[in-house]
């Protein structure tokens, strides 16, 4: 199992990044950043023994194409990449780092479409949003055989527990109140 933490901090603000560096978490997900900051943030996180995963679609100034993914892998040295786009996940898989397909379960059509993408690109993990859909977590895991991470609308300790109970291997949250569960 790649993720030892059941709750994975998803960082949007630098002050939260600094707080997580001092925590016992092994993994950090960087949701938003600027390409000019990224290399230093990843280097700093690695100095603290943290693995850092970035959401390629949310990095300002980065085009999530072949060259952008090569830059993240070879220059920035991220440990993994998250994306909603299947073509990005395919590029990440070629770089031999962790690929996480983010999937929004908006309705049945979106879910079916995203499942087809996941089956085609075979990410290492699928992150389902929102996490508070217990039946969907089980359905996606059973249909794909890929471990599920769940995020979005996680507001309480009970939400975390229920999501894990329903089959997610970990929960991502930007709520720093839940990081120490």
Automatic annotation (TrEMBL):
The keyword Transcription applies. GO terms for molecular function: RNA binding; transcription antitermination factor activity, RNA binding. One of its GO terms (biological process) is positive regulation of DNA-templated transcription. This is Glycerol uptake operon antiterminator regulatory protein. SUPFAM superfamilies: GlpP-like. Keywords: Glycerol metabolism, RNA-binding, Transcription, Transcription regulation. Gene3D superfamilies: Aldolase class I. It comes from Oceanobacillus indicireducens. Regulates expression of the glpD operon. In the presence of glycerol 3-phosphate (G3P) causes antitermination of transcription of glpD at the inverted repeat of the leader region to enhance its transcription. Binds and stabilizes glpD leader mRNA. It comes from the Bacteria.
């Amino acid at each position: 199992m790649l993720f030892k933490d059941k709750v994975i901090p998803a960082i949007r603000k630098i002050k939260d990044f600094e707080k997580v560096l001092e925590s016992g978490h092994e993994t950090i997900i960087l949701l938003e950043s600027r390409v000019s900051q990224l290399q230093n943030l990843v280097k700093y996180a690695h100095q603290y023994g943290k693995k850092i995963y970035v959401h390629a679609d949310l990095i300002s100034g980065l085009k999530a194409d072949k060259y952008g993914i090569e830059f993240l892998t070879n220059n920035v040295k991220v440990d993994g990449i998250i994306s909603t786009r299947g073509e990005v996940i395919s590029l990440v898989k070629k770089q031999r780092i962790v690929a996480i397909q983010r999937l929004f379960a908006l309705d049945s059509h979106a879910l079916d479409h995203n499942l087809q993408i996941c089956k085609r690109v075979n990410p290492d993990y699928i992150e389902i949003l929102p996490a508070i859909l217990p039946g969907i977590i089980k359905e996606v895991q059973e249909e794909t055989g890929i471990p599920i991470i769940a995020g979005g609308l996680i507001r309480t300790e009970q939400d975390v527990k229920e999501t894990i109970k329903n089959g997610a291997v970990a929960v991502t949250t930007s709520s720093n109140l839940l990081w120490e569960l």
